[in-house]
Design goal:
Helix content is 38%, strand content 14%. It is built from four helices and seven strands, in the order βββαβαβαβαβ. The strands form two sheets. It has a five-stranded parallel beta sheet, covered by helices on one side.
Length: 152
């Protein structure tokens, strides 16, 4: 299945990424706002999430940056609203390792987690998250009893 020029494999999973240690967007820098490539990937994934076609989101090493995370967090919120009224699939796993995400991106995720009750696992290792970002996650975990795994 094609999704805005990206392959969706296997069903109900959005997977995009290269071999570990390589990057499909060579020449990028550690840009916390993300790159054009990262924004395009985030928008394609967001569309799929809103339509309820994803239960697992895997976007490793896509240079999403904080702006890409904002797009994803908003689409997950919108998907959550739709799932209450329909047979809409909900997202349970988010793997966004190696994406130049900073504490600003963590703010978007913690806003999401304050109301989300479907995501059980988030992988954020190899990003640029400091102790302040970890503290933001710690504060929201008292509101969210669904998240079981948080990898920083």
């Amino acid at each position: 299945m094609q999704l805005d020029g990206l392959q969706q494999q296997p069903p109900k999973m959005f997977r995009r990424g290269g071999t570990p240690g390589t990057s499909p967007h060579k020449g990028t820098t550690n840009n916390p706002t993300g790159t054009l490539h990262g924004q395009m990937v985030a928008k394609a994934a967001a569309s799929s999430i809103k339509e309820g076609r994803q239960t697992i989101l895997e976007l490793v090493d896509q240079d999403l940056g904080d702006n890409g995370v904002a797009v994803l967090a908003q689409s997950i919120k919108e998907g959550d609203k739709m799932s209450k009224d329909t047979q809409h699939e909900t997202l349970s796993k988010v793997d966004i390792r190696k994406n130049n995400i900073t504490d600003s991106g963590v703010e978007h995720l913690t806003e999401l987690l304050a109301t989300n009750h479907s995501v059980t696992e988030i992988s954020l290792s190899e990003n640029n998250i400091t102790d302040n970002g970890a503290t933001l996650f710690a504060s929201v975990l008292s509101l969210n009893r669904t998240l079981l795994v948080l990898s920083l």
